[in-house]
ExeA family protein
Amino acid sequence: MSNALNLYNEHFGLSERPFSLSPDPDFLYWTDEHKRAYTMLEYGVATRAPITLITGEIGAGKTTLMQHLLNNLDDDLTVGLVANAHGDRGELLRWVLMALNQLTEPSANYVDLFTKFQEFLIAEYAAGRSVMLIFDEAQNMSRESLEELRMFTNINANKDELLQLILIGQPELRDIIRRPDMRQFAQRIAASFHLTNMDEKTVYSYIVHRLERVGGREHMFSRKAAKLVYQETNGIPRLVNQLCDLCLLYACIAKREIVGVEHVRSVLADGAYFGPNANTAGDDSTI
């Protein structure tokens, strides 16, 4: 596998793989929407908003933005990252305390856990630090867990902000929060942004950006190839990465220096790409 990857990079003169599926803030492409989403994150942090909400489709770049934020936070913030929390409110507290490196006894009940959490927040505040909890994949949290997060924000007193919450999730999270029985939770959200998909022009610029980041040339992808990539991925960054990665591999196998529309069609025809429009593979009626 490593030899195949080396051949891929050497063929195009790349320093590393440009379209990895793993979120990497070093490759972050600042679309106008990502700039606004990140500004909203910064605003939430700076104003110590009780709850900041960022939503978007799977692969829209939410996790990459979050990682970029983590790399640029001040030292006076203690951060806990909770990914895919599940269970009742007692289990949620265990997830939170674990994220904050606080050990808990298996026999501890809800009151014990909440007391430990509150004492930790107060101790951090006394030491000149505030606490931020980031919940990734928050759309998977139950209504009970979301209500528990609202109760967390009650720990803040007057102007003394001990705790901030950032929720990152898919679009259905917005639908959950907009329900009438979630009105009190929604009122605690002081900053929010919803990331939509990239348009055709942005997809081409995104491809060029990632290629140039690893020493590639601007015109390694033809405009027609990029257009078909956009159509097949609906402009979702993670899917763009998946399809472009395979297209580079196919162009390498064909010993071509430029990825053309024929390479995209070959990937689609071979069923190597599993995107939302995969069943229409090879349809070139709009190219």
Remarks:
- Strands lie at 51-56, 77-83, 130-136, 163-169, 189-195.
- Residues 281-287 have pLDDT under 50 and may be disordered.
